[in-house]
Amino acid sequence: MHCPFCRHADTRVIDSRTAEDGSAIRRRRQCPSCGRRFSTVETSSLTVVKRSGATEPFSRDKVVAGVRKACQGRPVSDDDLALLAQQVEETLRSSGAAQIDAHEIGLAILGPLRQLDEVAYLRFASVYSSFSSLKDFEEAIAILRAERADRGPAGQDDGLTDGSADLGPAGEVEQAPTH
Ligand SMILES: [Zn+2]
């Protein structure tokens, strides 16, 4: 490994530590030429297989970019998105597979996104699961409502009140006669 300061061709490992969850190894290195120290983090590579069959390294940035669209106008911060991407990566890595389908990333996003913001979740799920009719939305909303009922009365400040306000039009559809 080259020294990032003076580009010396070799560096010495002076300390090596495994992350608590075992997913990474952090090494402290020192350059024998300029004497400066720096750290490297070693993780197993996680390869994503796209629908086309092409592969690319897993990227948290891409997760954030994908979810950000669904979060437009919602009270979701960059920190929230970064944390979500981290949760998604942890979920995928915990499967132990070195190679995953792009489809599995979407699936791993749904859970944490639902915790984060139900409206963003519905938007994302509608694209990811290719909702083709209002019925698909009705079913997804019915599941959210049922699970919310399980959790007891909506909290005072859990953001759900906002969500249901935004869901207004879809809520009306739910009461429309079905055939
Ligand atoms: Zn150096």
TrEMBL record:
<dbReference type="GO" id="GO:0008270">
    <property type="term" value="F:zinc ion binding"/>
</dbReference>
<dbReference type="InterPro" id="IPR055173">
    <property type="entry name" value="NrdR-like_N"/>
</dbReference>
<keyword id="KW-0479">Metal-binding</keyword>
<dbReference type="GO" id="GO:0003677">
    <property type="term" value="F:DNA binding"/>
</dbReference>
<keyword id="KW-0805">Transcription regulation</keyword>
<keyword id="KW-0862">Zinc</keyword>
<keyword id="KW-0067">ATP-binding</keyword>
<dbReference type="GO" id="GO:0045892">
    <property type="term" value="P:negative regulation of DNA-templated transcription"/>
</dbReference>
<feature type="region of interest" description="Disordered">
    <location>
        <begin position="151"/>
        <end position="179"/>
    </location>
</feature>
<dbReference type="InterPro" id="IPR003796">
    <property type="entry name" value="RNR_NrdR-like"/>
</dbReference>
<protein>
    <recommendedName>
        <fullName>Transcriptional repressor NrdR</fullName>
    </recommendedName>
</protein>
<keyword id="KW-0804">Transcription</keyword>
<keyword id="KW-0547">Nucleotide-binding</keyword>
<feature type="domain" description="ATP-cone">
    <location>
        <begin position="46"/>
        <end position="136"/>
    </location>
</feature>
<dbReference type="Pfam" id="PF03477">
    <property type="entry name" value="ATP-cone"/>
</dbReference>
<keyword id="KW-0863">Zinc-finger</keyword>
<keyword id="KW-0238">DNA-binding</keyword>
<keyword id="KW-0678">Repressor</keyword>
<feature type="zinc finger region">
    <location>
        <begin position="3"/>
        <end position="34"/>
    </location>
</feature>
<comment type="function">
    <text>Negatively regulates transcription of bacterial ribonucleotide reductase nrd genes and operons by binding to NrdR-boxes.</text>
</comment>
<dbReference type="Pfam" id="PF22811">
    <property type="entry name" value="Zn_ribbon_NrdR"/>
</dbReference>
<dbReference type="InterPro" id="IPR005144">
    <property type="entry name" value="ATP-cone_dom"/>
</dbReference>
<dbReference type="GO" id="GO:0005524">
    <property type="term" value="F:ATP binding"/>
</dbReference>
<comment type="similarity">
    <text>Belongs to the NrdR family.</text>
</comment>
